[in-house]
Amino acid sequence: WDDFTPYIYASEDQGKTWNNISANIPASPVNVILEDPENENLLFAGTDNGLYASFNRGESWEIFQSGMPNVAVHDLVIQPEAKHLLIGTHGRSIYKADISKLQMMTYETQQKELHVFKAENLKHNERWGNASSSWREPNTPGLDITFHTSKSGSYSAKIITSDDIVVSETEIAADKGLNILSYDVAFSKAGAKAFRSKNKMELKEAKNGKTYLPKGSYMVEIEGNGNTKKVEFEIE
After folding, report:
1. Alpha carbon distance 196, 204 (integer Å)
2. pTM (2 decimals)?
3. 72 neighbors 57 (Cβ within 8 angstroms)
4. Which of 11, 31, 167, 206 is the most exposed, having the fewest neighbouring CB atoms within 10 Å of its CB?
5. Cα(130)–Cα(209) distance, rounded to whole angstroms?
6. Which residues are bridge partners to 145 per DSSP?
7. How many beta carbons lie within 10 A of that of residue 29, not counting itself?
8. What's the rounded Cα separation, in Å, for the pair 118 and 19?
9. Contacts 24+ apart (CB under 8 A), 53-61
10. What is the pLDDT of residue 132?
């Protein structure tokens, strides 16, 4: 009937009373809403104008469209073990989003000026950077480090060994909110030189030209806007 008002209501008393939680969602029909199974404050809503997420149970919403076209979202399903949100769209196929870090977002986390989420451990592989045949691409590792900031700005990231050697470092132009640093688990040239000098260990360069970190414990240090946070990860 040409009414494009987003209607989303929630009840906390088994339907006796209802509250409007559509908040700042732009005018558009709402097709589907989903509550996260691990974080009850995390909601997803699919509208004819795209996908939205709320970290505060509908008090406010944010567009959740990075890497996805502006298209109607008709269905949402969460795969609980993989922690993936599957997004069914109108005519643009199915998209998948890793929401594991979103599930960890709390009110306390959002109030911090800088928060770095726990990094996953990796299994070392001697074939990193080396193709098993001329028909295959090299097997390459990767580590995504997610952090949340209260303000945008320039941040530095360092990967440090348990004996305080900086094996790699970079600068990040971080946005306010969630950011992802994708690390290739390799030494910088300066890092490899410092590591060899201190540990007297032979480091083999892979066929793709990179020298990958050996087994051990490492620290990720994110610094910016007067704040520094560290998290550990292991290469097992």
Report:
1. 11
2. 0.82
3. no
4. 11
5. 9
6. 181
7. 14
8. 35
9. 53/102, 54/21, 54/23, 55/102, 55/105, 55/110, 56/107, 57/10, 57/21, 58/8, 58/10, 58/21, 58/22, 58/23, 59/21, 59/23, 60/23, 60/24, 61/22, 61/23, 61/24, 61/25
10. 74
Copy the structure tokens of residue 146: 């997610």
Question: In angstroms, how far apart are the furthest CA atoms of the chain?
Answer: 75
* Residue 233 and residue 121 in contact, taking contact as beta carbons nearer than 8 Å: yes
Whole-angstrom distance, CA of residue 126 vs CA of residue 204: 10
User: CA–CA separation, 101 vs 178, rounded Å?
Assistant: 9
CA distance 188 to 184: 10
Whole-number Å distance between alpha carbons of 235 and 192: 16
* Alpha carbon distance 71, 54 (integer Å): 19
Q: Taking Cα atoms as reference points, which of 42, 45, 11 lies closest to residue 28?
A: 45
- Asked if 99 and 64 touch (Cβ cutoff 8 Å), the reply is no
3-state per-residue secondary structure call for 173-216? EECCEEEEEEECCECCHHHHHHHHHHHCCCCCCCCCCCCECCCE
d(CA 222, CA 236): 23
Q: Give the pairing of strands 94-98 and 62-63.
A: unpaired
Which residues make beta-bridge pairs with 146?
180
Give the pLDDT means over successive 10-residue stretches in the chain (236 positions). 93 96 95 96 96 95 90 97 96 94 90 94 93 80 94 96 96 93 95 91 90 96 96 96
* CB 218, CB 233: distance < 8 Å: yes
Consecutive H or E run containing 108: helix 107-111
